[in-house]
Design a protein that fits this description.
Oligomer: single chain
Helix content: 40-55%
Strand order of the largest sheet: 5-6-4-3-2-1-7
CATH topology of the largest domain: Aldehyde Dehydrogenase, Chain A, domain 2
Distance between the termini: 39 Å
Number of strands: 15
CATH architecture of the largest domain: 3-Layer(aba) Sandwich
Shape: elongated
Radius of gyration: 27 Å
């Protein structure tokens, strides 16, 4: 495995610890800050989190985070400071360091070829007085953390305690939504002061259910068959008389069932027994795939609206309502059934959607398949599913619960 894999896993480990800290806060309105002073902090403590699954413990490996925490201690000596770290050869343990152990961690030998980073650390260490270090140790806790899977299972168990959570499967589902929620808090808030959450806010977010997130967590936890079964039981199909946006990202193409074939098959099913008030769905496709997909769809003789994107995109044309004719009954009265519609769906590249969409259409629900939530639709009901194939998507849309 490469460094990127462990960096991602380390961030997931940090997310799990953050979830636990929020859920175990003494007061439901206590605010837990993410990626502000350090990885986690509150009014009472500051915490650094390090995940070193492949490494054995060595005092030098925790030198840098302890220096960072000591620097924070100098600014605010009333808080407690935690280094929450996992090494492959260390069992779970919370310990208090002695001054001798701290000095061993701080021991550095500077050579002519020493890095600038190491020299900077040595300068800081030499500036610490015995009084500084002793005072810091009174407020410092070294926590050797559990394994990744053990902490994940503890997190699931804590979520399982929600009064509205009825099974372990539901707990994993809620976990996916919570983890995504915390990632978005960090990624979407450039102002670090806005990166925080309370238990009350988190529970309200989960219970509101406006965004449903299905990630690889459940897939890894229960396996593919149970994952798909669970998706089907919780998947809400689009209402035909409401606007629906369908984002299709880097989904798996299996058995040569292409994205174009998915769209054509979905459309055929969507228009079965259609009534005059049907709303054409809007597909948002990866920009580097859009032309190839549209060419393939054209072979099916389906009329769609792309706003002439490949020539010069016309937003007004793209977002216009379709022309609809209703069927006539045998007594020459107009029925509710659809006879003809000027186009059956809209299709647009992700880049054009990002550039031109300004709430001309407000979808009842947005579906994201292997695609991130869109910031222009953050208040809309949404379903996000990762790790899914074209055939699985079609089965979800066509399935009966």
């Amino acid at each position: 495995m490469d460094g990127g894999y462990y960096a991602i896993k380390g961030f997931e480990f940090q997310i799990d610890k953050t979830i636990l800290e929020v859920l175990e806060a003494v007061d439901e309105d206590d605010r837990i800050n993410l990626e502000q002073i350090q990885d986690i902090n509150t009014a009472d403590y500051v915490m650094q989190i390090k995940y070193r699954e492949t490494q054995k413990y060595n005092p030098s490996k925790i030198r840098e985070p302890i220096i960072q925490l000591l620097e924070e201690f100098k600014k605010n000596p009333s808080s407690n400071y935690y280094l929450f770290c996992h090494f492959q050869d260390r069992p779970e343990l919370t310990s208090k360091l002695t001054i001798t152990e701290l000095n061993e961690i701080f021991q550095i030998t500077i050579k002519s070829n020493s890095s600038k980073k190491l020299v900077t650390q040595a300068v800081k260490i030499n500036s610490y007085t015995l009084t500084n270090k002793v005072a810091f140790l009174d407020n410092f806790f070294l926590v050797f953390a559990p394994k990744f899977q053990d902490q994940f299972e503890k997190t699931i168990s804590r979520i399982r305690n929600f009064s509205f959570c009825n099974s372990d499967d539901e707990a994993v589902f809620y976990y996916s939504n919570i983890a995504d929620y915390f990632r978005k808090i960090v990624i979407n808030n450039t102002n670090v002061k806005d990166r925080n959450c309370s238990r009350r806010e988190l529970v309200n977010y989960v219970k509101s259910g406006r965004k449903l997130v299905f990630t690889s967590s459940f897939l890894e936890y229960k396996g593919e068959i149970e994952y798909i079964k669970y998706l089907k039981s919780h998947f809400t199909k689009p209402l035909k008389n409401q606007e629906n946006f369908i984002f299709i990202g880097a989904v798996t193409i299996n058995d040569e069932f292409t994205i174009a074939q998915l769209i054509v098959s979905f459309t055929a099913k969507f228009y079965e027994r259609a009534t005059y008030d049907i709303k054409p769905p809007t597909f948002i496709i990866q920009s580097d795939k859009i032309n190839e997909i549209k060419k393939e769809i054209l072979k099916s003789n389906i009329c769609f609206n792309d706003g002439f994107e490949s020539l010069e995109f016309n937003p007004e044309l793209f977002f216009q309502r379709p022309v609809i004719n209703r069927k006539m009954q045998s007594n020459r009265r107009v029925s509710d059934s659809l006879a003809i519609i000027s186009f059956k769906f809209r299709i647009i590249s992700k880049s054009s959607f990002d550039k031109y969409y300004c709430k001309e259409i407000n979808p009842n629900r947005a579906y994201y398949f292997a695609e991130d939530f869109h910031n222009k639709l953050k208040d809309n009901q949404s379903i996000q599913i990762n790790n899914i194939s074209t055939k699985q998507i079609l089965n979800l849309f066509n399935s009966d619960k």
